Amino acid sequence: MIQQDDPEAACARVLDWLRELGAEQVTLVAHPAGPADGLLLPLAGRYRARQALHLCPAPDWTAGQRAAAEDAARHLALVLERVAAERRLDTLLHLQRQLDSVPAEELYQPLLDAAVQLVPGAQGGSLLVRGGDSFRFGAVVGYDFEPLRPVTFPWQETRDIWYGLGDAAWRRGVPRVLSRSVVLQDGAGYHRDQQWVDSVLPEVQRLQCVVAVPVLFGDEVYALINLDSFTDPDAFDADAVHVTQAFGSMASLLIHEAQRHAQVQTTARTDALTGLGNRRAFNECLEQAVRLSRSGAPLSLLVLDLQGFKGVNDRLGHATGDQALRQVAGLLVGLVRGQDRLFRWGGDEFAVLLSGTDARGAWLVGQRITRAMGSVQVQGLPLRATIGAATLRPGGTAEALLHEADQAMYAAKARGESLATADEFPG
């Protein structure tokens, strides 16, 4: 009676057939929370019914007619389950294409949104991200995020008590379904603003059922997705658990790819010897900083050339020269603010990008560096710095700022000084 490849036609044919049997009004309703009057035909195929056909008023059928109607509903349910599975797969593939190469932090909310949409019975949820010895909220659906931002959970208690299926299942990403009583018992205990609270979160009180699935990165659990039902204590059946596990596996792949992409990007922009940004990173950051500074915030640049480095290389060897460069890099890191950016952009050349720093501030930073460099020696050989400083002019470009700082450095060299500014030598 039902064409398995056409869900809309299958549904229409079942409804028409039921009306031919005497059903006056047939509607599709949620199950088990459907209307109390009339007759409900649950749409249960391989899994529990989440929808039903509501016949009102209840038809006066024989036992045989009712059995035939129930059989038709079961076949329709199998068709709808197949269609739902295909749609989930399409959604997962679309999500994978959409989120490919997105930074991990930007994955959390769309991943959780998709999980709540795809997993049968899910009405809300949270994605917990591990950092060190604790989990924090990375995304939520159905909750206000702000009160949860300062909340963390000890990772070991999260694994052993909240998840509770053992380390082997934890590392395989096996989902666990938690009933309301288990949620209220095993969900107690968290930190808020680093203060321990020995109770459940207020948001947990309304949960009827939860399915939790670990998200892996390599052989470690990177995150934990909790999907929640607020109304149905039996929301997560075998179908929901199967979908949850498949989604957890896909989330693991996406996060792994995001981390790998980030690592490649970081490596491509990092000087392997010193750990500072390289020339590519410098060019990108300079362009970005110039764009941001057009709002009115000052921007300054220091370019630094080492004096005496060639002698270190020639007399003591390249290995010692490399160590000297690492020593200078470490010194510079300790002399600038956290918001400032450091780069090694040539053999013995460094650059310091000073966001929010005007010309006088740049001069003071340059003086601080030259004073600190005054005491640097490499096996008795002195190592000094010549610095050129420049501040972005109104309407200025990244190229112009770099040129002015470079010219100031060469002017300082020509005068035998350690520091000069572009304002002295406009170009």
Notable traits:
427 residues, alpha+beta, Beta-Lactamase, Alpha-Beta Plaits, eight-stranded antiparallel beta sheet, 12 helices, 18 strands, elongated, diguanylate cyclase activity, GGDEF_dom
Explained architecture:
GO terms for molecular function: diguanylate cyclase activity. One of its GO terms (biological process) is cell adhesion involved in single-species biofilm formation. This is GGDEF domain-containing protein. This protein is of the alpha+beta class. The protein has 3 domains: 7-86, no CATH class; 101-266, GAF domain (Beta-Lactamase); 279-424, 2-Layer Sandwich (Alpha-Beta Plaits). It is 45% helix and 23% strand. The protein is built from 12 helices and 18 strands. The protein has helices at residues 7-20, 63-99, 104-118, 155-163, 167-172, 180-186, 238-268, 279-293, 309-316, 318-333, 359-373, 398-415; strands at 26-30, 39-42, 51-55, 124-131, 134-141, 151-154, 176-179, 190-192, 195-197, 209-217, 220-229, 299-307, 341-344, 349-355, 377-378, 381-382, 384-391, 419-421. Strands 7-10-11-4-5-6-8-9 form an 8-stranded antiparallel β-sheet. Helix 9 packs antiparallel against helix 10. The radius of gyration is 32 Å and the shape is elongated. The mean pLDDT is 87.
